[in-house]
Amino acid sequence: MSLLVVGSVALDSLETPFGRREEVLGGSASYFSTCASFFGPTRVVAVVGEDFPEEHLAFLSSRGADLAGLVRQPGRTFRWKGRYDFDLNTAQTLDTQLNVLATFKPALPAAWRDTEFVFLGNIDPDLQQSVLDQVGKPRFVACDTMNFWIDSKRASLLETLKRVDLLFVNDAEARQLAGEHNVIKAAKTILGFGPRAVVVKRGEYGALFFSGSEVFAASAYPLLDVFDPTGAGDSFAGGFMGYVARCGRMEPDVLRRAIVVGSVVASFAVEQFSLDRLRTLTAAEIRARYAEARQLAHFDDLEPDLFAPGR
Amino acid sequence: MSLLVVGSVALDSLETPFGRREEVLGGSASYFSTCASFFGPTRVVAVVGEDFPEEHLAFLSSRGADLAGLVRQPGRTFRWKGRYDFDLNTAQTLDTQLNVLATFKPALPAAWRDTEFVFLGNIDPDLQQSVLDQVGKPRFVACDTMNFWIDSKRASLLETLKRVDLLFVNDAEARQLAGEHNVIKAAKTILGFGPRAVVVKRGEYGALFFSGSEVFAASAYPLLDVFDPTGAGDSFAGGFMGYVARCGRMEPDVLRRAIVVGSVVASFAVEQFSLDRLRTLTAAEIRARYAEARQLAHFDDLEPDLFAPGR
Q1: How many Å lie between the alpha carbon of A105 and the closest alpha carbon of chain B?
Q2: pTM above 0.90?
Q3: B182 contacts in A (CB within 8 Å)?
Q4: Is residue A23 a part of any domain in this protein?
């Protein structure tokens, strides 16, 4: 199997109620590839500046990231600075410095044209399409986006959506993209735009999956301590796509398990700053928490002859 | 089995984005007993005024409500007027007229002293305790409350909690009662106040159940059209307690199914104004939607030999 991600590799500065960190490893491609690595290697398409620490590249490589598609360009690396208050569901962006990301043009190594599984991280939908132009006939394409692109590049985003199998969005993005308040109706509208499936992420509440008439609701793992929510969505996508690529199948039962895997991996990612928890995370821990998630959601069929007479 | 509810019987006036209704049947005891009636009869302790329409009492009776504990007093019936905006999760109270409820002193028929299952609706915790004083040795007591009592009668509410088996609260009430933002920690704190179990209702997101080290997460049935959320919590409690009383057991597996039953019954209740949908609801519809809820939440175990080598 072959899995490719296009996205950001960043230096994040974070403030949370629990502390702060300056210029730590971040970016959608970093979280994605590290989380997918539990299931297999990832081809990374991204850009960094001259100032990007070699140790971060060494770490990503050690986690099976193939960096043949990561270019180092003159200038500074993309930087994001954000703050979370006690409601850890929403980030407040304090500063964004695009730097080398401003002129990023994804260029895939020719050998990657055979890629089977593709994740289009949250970048300009024009760039997402240019990546798809450079892969031959992928088996499964998933894509992320955000309010900024929904608002400013809607037409291009709708073109991307015609070419993807699955879209990851959060509640607010789903509502904005569909122009519909009810999230169930919003998801159905989005399915009409092209994707075969939509995953609506709802933070601490879990995720909903829609495909055709199929609906799956996954509860989030109930965490006592959310430390740093940065990268949760990309960790979710990384676990999801890593698992799907490893299975090599896209049947509904696989996608349901993939959502739980993504949710579990993301639940670890937010336990510490940056990718720190992912550095120590083991497959055994993922498997154990997946089993807990099964237990968390389990209930049996109703008994027969249960209702009051005449009802 | 015997099930008792103490709560309000009200005349509600409602405004939603979908229309309005004046002086329709409402109140916690009305919703509760009608929803519990799918599983068996309910003993109703409540008060109405001279103006309360006989047809509503006839309806409640037809649904197995034993009205021997419902008194008709001089004066007007309790009235509540509320509005919902497009975010149907939160009601805006426009007017509350306590009327006969202001001097309500629950008095149980002597024959009801043997009651096994008790639901203390959202009333003054002093009155909740006076009801418990009037039942001998109930097998299972559940209780509802609200921000007003948490704020204004905290000491009395904590006394009530020492005497109940299960508390129903929503997210915000759990946080307020526990003085703790994280809802998981809040639930654990509340368990320390006395109840053996806590159900945290999260509106469109479903419900969490806590008891000892046990946690259960139930997703809400994904509704395309929420019409009138009034009574959703009491409908949930009615389905829950009706089912538990019918089973006559309080083991974890029963309580899990009870939460799904409550969630399913509540999902019907909000489809039309007042108790209108409950008037036509059948046991077969409840059973069918319960089966859908099973399908909605289902996912399988992970495959063995799944992870990448060395992880």
Answers
A1: 31
A2: yes
A3: 224-226
A4: yes
